[in-house]
Amino acid sequence: MNEDSIASMIDVDPKTIFRTISPVIAELGAFSAALILYDTVYRLAQQEGAFQLAEKLSGYFPLFAEVVEGDLSPTEAELIIERRLEPVIEELRAFSSVVVVGIESVILDSLSRKLPGVQIYIISHFSTIDEERVLANFPSNVQLIGVREIMGLGGTRSVLLSYVFCQTQDDSFVYPVTFRAIGPDVRSSYSQIVGLNILTDYNRYLGDMAPLYSTSQFFTNQFRIV
């Protein structure tokens, strides 16, 4: 283990690190950015260095701390994501289009590759992104749309997905754009509204997300992924 690398993790300015990672969060997703940062730090300073950086960043990027404290290596985390996605992908084969609220590249990469016959529409969780750069990461069956276009894509052959960061149904968070995208009129036009639970356990309040309460019955189905 490189002691100099670990020491450098302790000395970093968390504001500088967060400013550097913010464009990645906007275009790849908070969960995906957390995994990418974890992988980078793990290669430099192993788990101890990742823990040190997670502690420094906890107030700026709490999701990164949750990923690190899951006590899995980046490779193990990727394998779990793929395994948990398999049953969801099988369910989605029955649909002709999937509308996804929020960009999470680690999830969308797998969906778009394994569902080549399904059109995938993405609503960004961030107001300003480089659309051309985002779409360059995906195959041709992926398209970016605006919130207002969501109603026109409903129907019995369409499913609407959003990400849920939760420990229990009473203790959950979603991207804030989810509430703008999925109103009562939208819910009635889709055969299924699915919440993808991509983080199975956490201990911090995810201040950059919006709290979701199970009593609202926001989702009609929920799959656990990661």
Features:
about 230 residues; 2 domains; eight-stranded mixed β-sheet; Rossmann fold; about 45% helix; 8 strands; alpha/beta; about 20% strand; disordered N terminus
Summed up, what is this model?
The chain has 226 residues and is an alpha/beta fold. It has helices spanning 3-11, 14-28, 30-57, 62-68, 74-92, 105-114, 131-135, 177-181, 184-189; strands at 97-101, 119-123, 142-145, 155-168, 171-174, 190-199, 210-212, 221-224.
CATH class category of the largest domain: Alpha Beta
SSE class: alpha/beta
Shape: globular
N-to-C span: 29 Å
Beta-strand segment tally: 8
Q: Tell me what portion of residues adopts beta-strand conformation.
A: 15-25%
Here the CATH topology of the largest domain equals Rossmann fold
Order of helices and strands: HHHHHEHEHEEEHHEEE
Query: How large is the radius of gyration?
Result: 18 Å
Largest sheet: 8 strands, mixed
* Whole-number tally of structural domains: 2
The second-level CATH architecture of the largest domain is: 3-Layer(aba) Sandwich
Mean pLDDT across every amino acid position = 85
Instruction: Output the number of helix runs.
Output: 9
CATH superfamily annotation of the largest domain: Translation initiation factor eif-2b, domain 2
What helical percentage do the residues reach?
A: 40-55%
Unreliable stretches = 1-7
